[in-house]
Design a protein that fits this description.
mainly alpha
Length: 214
Amino acid sequence: SINPLITLLLAQVFLPGLERVTKQVVAGTFLTVAGVGLVILGTVGVIAGLVVAIGNLTGQRWLHDRRSLLGYALAMGAGASYGGSNVLTKVLISAYGSPLMISAFGLMFGVLLLLPLAGGGAVQDLKASRRSRGFLGHVVLAGLASAFAIIAFGYSLQRSDVVIVSPIVSINPLITLLLAQVFLPGLERVTKQVVAGTLLTVAGVVVVIVGSTM
């Protein structure tokens, strides 16, 4: 934040005899503010990149299916929930210091909350899907990937600030797009907007990392 700069200025106004400003203090203060500025700029770049990457696809879907508006609203709600959970996870890790325990409890409560919502329909879907080749393997891989992501995110929050980690983690839609081109070439199409958004998002992540080290 910019509070070091404000502190420096107020100390010179109200505590001129107690605080001494040196060149090192001034340089360090402005370097800190510059780092914060780069983090903010990088975060904006990440968001802009994601918007550019998926904006064209979203517009095309909207023209063909107006019901997709509900999907967009739910996606925004999911994003807000993820953002809130990031902060809560950071608070819990700071208080209890065990990312693995917090991740395990989070996954457990997630399962308990989803079971009543899934109901009998999920059981029927599972029975029907058992006949599909490789169904169990795909489910296991998806579960392992999700569990690893949550645990890795928890450990990253233990070692860094949430405002630094969140923009870096937000590159996951780009990974999804790249993997979709490899494994689902007939279902996903790479456009100029997707490429531009990908490059902008990666640049934003780089700026966030550079800013966090200043």
